[in-house]
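Might I ask for a little of your time on a matter of protein folding? The record follows directly beneath this note:
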Amino acid sequence: MSGNSNGRVGIGSVESEYIRRHHTHDDLADHQCSSALVKHIKAPVHLVWSLVRRFDQPQKYKPFISRCVVLGNLEIGSLREVDVRSGLPATTSTERLELLDDDEHIFSIRIVGGDHRLKNYSSVISLHPEIIDGRPGTLVIESFVVDVPDGNTKDETCYFVEALIKCNLKSLADVSECHAVQDRTEPIECM
């Protein structure tokens, strides 16, 4: 596993312990790649979690998603059909909710279909409280495992997926921090 909010630079012991506890992807095959990325967000865990846990509305902070429809009830095993914005090498994705732990703040999905090259993709996001600049903040860790598509290397595949996750985490930070400021001051317009 690699990565932090600045890319593939070493991560601290706190982050390493959370990755060990919550982000082990069992049985990584030779044709797969895996990584973990870290983001520190200047907003309390409950606020960040209120966005992350919304399996039915990932577009609230994921800029590459234009629409999401949940099939059936919202529970473990539920499926969602996601439409991807143009500009990416994909149009749709079918994803299954694997884990939604409101106590530990852990969320996991698996891609089970769609028009894209991310085969056998699964991800885990965990949120952990921390203090940033004397205020409640959130340490977010997102890890993934995915098959390396034919014609690509592990490095190319990890770089592509990491770039998407970094965009999502930056957007999550922007939206969360905007709402955190809004809670402390007068109403302002967030994404």
